[in-house]
Design brief:
Number of helices of chain B: 2
Largest interface: A-B, 39 and 41 residues
Distance between the termini of chain A: 35 Å
Strand content of chain B: 25-35%
Number of strands of chain B: 6
Number of strands of chain A: 15
Strand content of chain A: 15-25%
Oligomer: heterodimer
Structural class of chain B: alpha/beta
Radius of gyration of chain B: 23 Å
Order of helices and strands of chain A: HHEHEHEEHEEEEHEEEEHHEEHEHHHH
Shape of chain B: extended
Largest sheet of chain A: 11 strands, mixed
Distance between the termini of chain B: 27 Å
Helix content of chain A: 40-55%
Number of helices of chain A: 13
Shape of chain A: elongated
Largest sheet of chain B: 5 strands, mixed, barrel
Structural class of chain A: alpha+beta
Chain lengths: 421, 207
């Protein structure tokens, strides 16, 4: 114990270098943990976004692409698919439920999704959890009703009964708006921690209605305009949707239904298994993740080597300190222990400060990351994996501390009390 | 960081009942002492091995999941993908698709409730937040090959795993151990098939 006190006192004497060394270690530890945490949380949020859906069907493109735009609202659809095709598979005896999805519009940067009431009863996330409404109700027969995700309602301060205008396209600042047909907020969903939170849900009829007079790729002008009132009385059955999700009666049938959809003769379609597409996505991201991890490992190593250098260079200055310690009865192993403890103290301080930095960073960036990237970083205790990493860093610090310790041990034997002039 | 998984799920395969080396000692009297000693040694070894043997699950291969008398599907002699039609895009579109030829393939009912061990590829259905696959289909081959129809129902096992398995690579085969459940077909849904609650999942390695 007195050895530790001595080591700390000696460090306090050189507090500026000691602080810098600890700070370097803190930064590197913070970087390593941040990389690890973003990696695991990104995976977790991807994995928990979709559950219980057997197949996702869209226009022919790539499986990862289809998964990204249909479930994660990242990127855009290559093409729409026909309503008939959806009907054909929704009525298949092997299909338990089917949810149509229509994408392409937005509201202040949040994507709008056209769907049916089935979305609220069948879509599942996390561990087979269903969506729940925190306020209001799902959209009903009126085409101009919207159900907001939790994040949308929070960020834009909407409450039930508010009117909002959807924008054409998915840009955050949109120049073309569907301002002749405002929507009324009728419900707000519970927070899910998935892209559902950042989505505005409208009925397929609503999606059809806002585009009903867009005949030339621009909103109609003058007499060509169809008002919201007129649109209500028109046939708003969509001719095309962007994608649909299927739940099957038997998982064993997944492959045969998938193959059948992929070879559907009336239209080129692509059916994917969400689990497989996720796996493909991860193997794509895996390489980048590994690279980031290796880089941050090397940064930690650099921090530790900085500590080693600082201690080693201080050895010469501290000959007198060692000599005095020896003269008052310290044995060579005391001197060695002192230096190991010094390294340990620096590493522990560095790790503690690193964790502090990490949590401060998470607390500060949490809202921003959630709103802009849909990535939720919880302020959770370090996981078992993170504790292991920290233990490894501590072990490496001890190992490095033993280098100057060994040198001091040898020197204090050779030097004794003599001072070389 | 990539915890390469091997044995992940702690489990205890239930004994399948021992049939074994009861008759091994029968030929002993005529032998010379050395041979007898050898025989005895062998017997002891076998007896030692017996408990291990009895506990091991029955190892299956995929053809064992197809019942003996299953109707043989006559080979389709027209090529599945006829390159000569490539020039004629329209007729290629209308050519028969390589769909499943026998959707409600029969299953081997005797396998119901048996403790088995089966190798195959994992096709993830449900992935937990920790990135572990907790529900998947086990298939005899993994399908980048779209030239042939998908495997029939009796060549797919629908597997649940409490603990899950971290699948890093879809092309890595695994051994799965557990009790097989056979579900008979409800004709109109074609949902006959094999199900299993996995007790052990570990990577299949070439010996």
């Amino acid at each position: 114990m007195y050895l530790l006190r001595l080591a700390l006192a000696s460090l306090a004497n050189r507090r500026f270098t000691a602080l810098l060394t600890a700070f370097a270690i803190a930064l590197s530890v913070c970087l390593l943990l941040a990389v690890e945490r973003v990696r695991t949380e990104a995976r977790a949020s991807f994995a928990s976004t979709i559950s219980g859906t057997d197949l996702i069907v869209g226009a022919r493109s790539g499986s990862v692409n289809l998964l990204l735009y249909s479930v994660f609202r990242i990127g855009n659809a290559t093409n729409n698919i026909r309503w008939d095709s959806f009907q054909h598979y929704a009525q298949d005896p092997r299909v338990k439920w089917a949810i149509p999805i229509s994408l392409g519009d937005s509201h202040r940067g949040y994507r709008v999704m056209g769907t049916t009431g089935d979305y609220f009863s069948h879509y599942q996330y996390g561990r087979r959890q269903h969506l729940a409404l925190s306020q209001g109700r799902a959209f009903a027969d009126d085409p101009f009703e919207v159900v907001l995700g939790a994040e949308v309602a929070d960020a834009l301060h909407y409450k039930l009964g508010d009117k909002l205008v959807l924008a054409h396209g998915v840009a955050a600042i949109s120049l073309v708006k569907h301002d002749d047909k405002p929507f009324t907020v009728v419900g707000v969903l519970e927070r899910t921690g998935t892209p559902v939170d950042r989505t505005l849900h409208i009925g397929l009829a609503g999606m059809e209605a806002i585009h009903i007079d867009w005949h030339n790729g621009v909103p109609a002008r003058g007499a060509g305009r169809i008002s919201a009132e007129q649109a209500r009385s028109m046939d708003l059955q969509p001719a095309a949707i962007t994608a649909f999700m299927l739940g099957l009666n038997s998982k064993i049938a997944t492959f045969s239904v998938q193959r059948e959809i992929n070879e559907y003769r009336s239209e080129p379609l692509l059916a994917i298994l969400p689990g497989v597409a996720l796996q493909e996505l991860w193997s794509l991201m895996g390489t980048a993740e590994q690279a980031l991890f290796v880089v941050s490992l090397f940064v930690v190593l650099t921090g530790l080597i900085g500590m080693l250098t600082a201690i080693l260079t201080s050895l010469n200055e501290r000959r007198r300190e060692m000599a005095i310690l020896r003269s008052v009865g310290a044995r060579p192993w005391h001197i060695a222990g002192l230096l190991v403890l010094e390294a340990l103290a620096l590493a522990v301080a560095g790790i503690a400060a690193g964790l502090g930095l990490l949590y401060a960073g998470i607390a500060l960036a949490q809202g921003y990351l959630q709103a802009n990237y849909g990535l939720y970083l919880p302020l959770a205790w370090p996981s078992a994996h993170e504790w292991t990493l920290l233990a490894i860093i501590l072990g490496a610090a001890l190992l490095m501390g033993s280098v100057p310790a060994w040198r001091a041990y040898r020197q204090s034997l050779a030097d004794g009390l003599s001072i070389h002039l | 960081m990539t915890d390469k998984l091997t044995g992940l799920i702690a489990g205890k395969p239930a004994p399948t009942g021992g049939v074994g080396a009861a008759h091994v000692g029968a030929g002993l009297p005529a032998m010379r002492p050395v041979q007898a000693l050898q025989g005895l040694l062998l017997l002891m070894l076998l007896l030692l091995a017996l408990p291990l043997w009895a506990a091991a699950p029955r190892e299956l291969d995929w053809p064992a999941l197809i019942p003996e008398g299953a109707p043989v599907i006559p080979p389709q002699l027209t090529p599945l993908h006829d390159m000569s039609q490539l020039s004629d895009a329209l007729s290629a579109e209308s050519a028969p698709a390589a769909h499943q030829q026998a959707p409600d393939a029969p299953v081997v009912k005797d396998l119901d409730g048996q403790q088995i061990k089966l190798p195959g590829y994992i096709v993830p259905l449900e992935v937990s937040e920790e990135g572990r696959t907790t529900e998947f289909l086990l298939v005899p081959y993994y399908g980048a090959c779209i030239h042939v129809p998908p495997p029939p129902a009796n060549q797919i096992v629908h597997i649940f795993s409490e603990m899950g398995v971290r699948v890093e690579d879809l092309y890595q085969p695994y051994w799965i151990e557990g009790k097989l459940q056979v579900r008979a077909s409800r004709s109109e849904l074609a949902d006959a098939g094999y199900q299993m609650e996995a007790e052990k999942i570990y990577a299949y390695v070439l010996k």
